[in-house]
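Practice problem: predict the structure.
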Amino acid sequence: MCYSVVKMGQYQKAIETCQAGIKVTPWSEHYCQTADAYIHLKKYQEAVKACDEGIKLDSESNHPRWLRKEALAAMGQK
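Answer:
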């Protein structure tokens, strides 16, 4: 559900939807979609935090690592 809200460009609503999903089912992809929404809102620190949580849940997934790298690059870090 939060993926489709992100893709519709409703980023704040996507964050709220993903956070509600996390409370029910902590899933790495919920954190990734939260991070994606934060990146669109230029809230890069929050995006990095969401990615870190996603990595904790699924250390094998590349998606949170890729989004984290994108957020850090937007902040001028590597």
